[in-house]
Amino acid sequence: MAKKVFLGVGHGGSDPGAVKYIKEADVNLNMALACRDYLQANGVTVKMSRTVDENDPLTEEIRECNAFNPDLAVDIHNNAGGGDGFEVYHYHKGGTSKTLAQNIEAEVKAIGQNSRGLKTRLNSSGSDYYGFIRCIKAPSIICEGVFVDNAADAAQADTLAEQRAFGIAYAKGILKTLGIADNGGNNGNADNGNADGGTISKNDIVTFTGGAVYISSTAAKAAKTVNKTSTCKVTAINTKGTHPYHCISQDGKGVYGWVDKASVRK
Ligand SMILES: [Zn+2]
C-alpha cells in the first residue's frame, strides 16, 4: 500500500503569516505544492491542508491530518524574528519525528541553505508546545525554511524556482525517512522551469519537463506523469490557477491536463 504523507500549509486567506520581503502564506504554498508533486511522482499519497490561498486554521489542519492517518506529517512554514537560516521542530522525545527532521535538514543544506538546527519546544506542562507536533498522532515536524524579515535569507526563497527547491528538498527527506528510493521525481525541475520569466502563450509549443499533470475532475483520472522532453501544445491559460497551462501532448502519449509553471519550458 502506498505510503501517506500529510502536508500542512501554514496560514492562508485572511492570515498571511509573516510578511516583509516575501509573504509567508504564498511561499509556504509553493513549497508545499512542489513537495507534493515530487512525492506523488514517487508513488506517495499526499494530502495537503490547503492547495489554494484560503483560511486554514491549525485546529482544522490537525483534525484533517488525524482523519487521513498518514505515515508522516510535515507543517510548512517560514520564519520571522530576524534570524538567519532554516530550522525544524520535532517531537521532544525524538523517534521518527527527529529522524525526519534530520533527513530534511540534510537536504535543505544540500540546496545551499544554512541550518539553525533541530529544535524542540515544550509548554509549561512538559508537552510539545506546538499543536501540530503535540496533537497529531503520526510522527510530525514543523519546517521553517527562511526568515521572511531578513533580506538576505528571504532572498533564498524569493523566486518560484527557489521555493520549489525547498519543497523538493523536503520531499527527498520524507522519501528517505519512508525508505522509498528517490526516482529523481521526474518532476519539479526547479532549475529548468519557466521561472526565468519566459512568457508562454496559448498555442505555443513547449517542452514538458516532467511532473504531475492535473486532469480535470470531469476526466475522473488520477494525476499522471510523462517523460521529460515531451513536446506539448498549450491550449488554454488560466493565470489565476496554481497550474496555469493546459497542455496537449504532441507525441500521442496522452498528456492532457493542467500543469504548473515549473513543468513546462518554451
Ligand atoms: Zn508560519
Can you give me a brief rundown of this structure?
With 266 residues, the chain is of the alpha/beta class.
Characterization of the model:
- With 266 residues, the protein is an alpha/beta fold.
- It has two domains: 4-178, Aminopeptidase, CATH 3.40.630.40; 205-265.
- 27% of the residues lie in helices and 24% in strands.
- It has helices at residues 24-41, 58-68, 95-110, 131-134, 151-154, 160-178; strands at 4-9, 45-48, 72-79, 86-90, 115-119, 140-147, 205-208, 212-213, 224-225, 230-237, 245-249, 256-259, 264-265.
- The chain has a six-stranded mixed sheet with strand order 2-1-3-6-4-5, sandwiched between helices. A five-stranded antiparallel sheet has the order 12-11-10-7-13, with no helix packed on it. A two-stranded antiparallel ribbon has the order 8-9.
- Helix 1 (24-41) links the parallel strand 1 (4-9) and strand 2 (45-48).
- Residues 187-197 and 215-228 have low confidence and may be disordered.
- Residues 10-11, 17, 24, 77 line the site of zinc ion.
Class based on secondary structure composition and strand pairing: alpha/beta
What's the number of structural domains?
A: 2
Strand fraction band?
15-25%
Would you list the SSEs in sequence order as H and E?
EHEHEEHEHEHHEEEEEEE
Q: Within the CATH hierarchy, at the fold level, what is the topology of the largest domain?
A: Aminopeptidase
In order across it, which strands form the biggest sheet? 2-1-3-6-4-5
CATH 4th-level superfamily of the largest domain: Zn-dependent exopeptidases
Could you give a short account of the major beta sheet?
Answer: 6 strands, mixed
Instruction: State the end-to-end CA separation.
Output: 38 Å
The low-confidence runs, each spanning 5 or more residues with pLDDT under 50, are 187-197, 215-228
The count of DSSP E runs of length 2 or more, i.e. the number of strands, is 13
What is the CATH top level name of the largest domain? Alpha Beta
CATH architecture of the largest domain, please? 3-Layer(aba) Sandwich
